[in-house]
């Protein structure tokens, strides 16, 4: 009897072990199936987003080839019965924060100081003045003075910034002005270059404050608005045409204009664009996105950068 009991116990142990193994194996294959299906779905959505990008790219080529203007827009594209949200945002006529330099080198002093002047003016126009910037940067009237010994002397007079000042400390102090403002204002942007780019044919009334700041307040709001509204129906044929309008419609000193447009860090164009497009496709609780950075110059379109991302919606 004792031997039968032991044998029965062994059989039960074997059955229990087999049950555990079957459960583990089942969970493993369920997880493998889930991961395989997820990877398959991710790949499908990735190809859908790339197809949408190609569709949009071809549409951009047609628009530019027909001498039409690119504009900010939102639309939907349907591919394989799936709805793809598309958003196109211009990132040209904005203050590129990557123009801000922290170097104390005296080389190209005015080019390094100029973006700080523009930033200071933008904050003042937006009624968000920074005491930190006011203490660090002199008034922009200094820019137009001509009695400097040399540009190598300018940096010490323009930017009163201590050698031991850390970039992180500065950014933290500056963002205290209004972090929400910096994150949401259309005036600010970030590109993979260190230029301030103004496309004169993309200027709208919403760019008035930016242009005022770019010209360091030598143009008032009324002047800027008048210039923007005077844009020909087919746009300015050249940057020269744009500046001729400024000289004809305002009392600005031509020498002041030349000092600004001759800066290496600032670029005016009538046919150069930066656009950031976002393509998004959603499946229940997951959103797949593709962000593409397009650069347009002389009707030639170049894809500068492309980034995929996956986000999850909260389950309610």
TrEMBL record:
It comes from the Bacteria. One of its GO terms (cellular component) is membrane. InterPro entries: GspK (IPR005628), GspK_central_sf (IPR038072). GO terms for biological process: protein secretion. This is General secretion pathway protein K. It comes from Yersinia rohdei.
């Amino acid at each position: 009897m004792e031997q039968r009991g032991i044998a029965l116990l062994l059989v039960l142990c074997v059955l229990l072990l087999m049950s555990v193994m079957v459960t583990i194996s089942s969970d493993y294959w369920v997880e493998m199936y889930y991961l395989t299906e997820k990877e398959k779905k991710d790949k499908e959505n990735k190809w859908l987003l790339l197809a949408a990008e190609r569709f949009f790219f071809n549409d951009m080529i047609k628009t530019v080839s027909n001498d039409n203007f690119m504009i900010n827009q939102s639309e939907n594209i349907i591919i394989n019965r799936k709805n793809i949200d598309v958003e196109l945002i211009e990132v040209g006529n904005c203050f590129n924060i990557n123009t801000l330099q922290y170097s104390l080198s005296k080389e190209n002093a005015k080019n390094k100081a100029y973006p700080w002047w523009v930033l200071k003016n933008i904050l003042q126009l937006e009624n968000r003045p920074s005491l930190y910037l006011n203490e660090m940067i002199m008034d922009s009237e200094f820019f137009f003075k001509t009695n400097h010994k040399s540009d190598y002397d300018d940096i010490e007079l323009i930017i009163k910034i201590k050698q031991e000042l850390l970039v992180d400390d500065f950014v933290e102090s500056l963002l205290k002005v209004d972090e929400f403002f910096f994150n949401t204002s259309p005036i600010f942007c970030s590109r993979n270059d260190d230029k301030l780019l103004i496309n004169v044919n993309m200027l709208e009334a919403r760019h008035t404050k930016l242009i005022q700041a770019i010209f360091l307040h030598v143009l008032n709001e009324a002047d800027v608005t008048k210039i923007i509204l005077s844009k020909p129906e087919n746009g300015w044929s050249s940057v020269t045409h744009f500046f001729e309008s400024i000289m004809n419609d305002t009392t600005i000193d031509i020498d002041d204009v030349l000092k600004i447009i001759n800066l290496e860090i600032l670029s005016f164009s009538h046919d150069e664009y930066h656009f950031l497009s976002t393509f998004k496709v959603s499946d229940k609780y997951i959103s797949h996105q593709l962000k593409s950075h397009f650069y347009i110059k002389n009707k030639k379109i170049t894809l500068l950068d492309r980034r995929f991302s996956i986000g999850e919606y909260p389950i309610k």
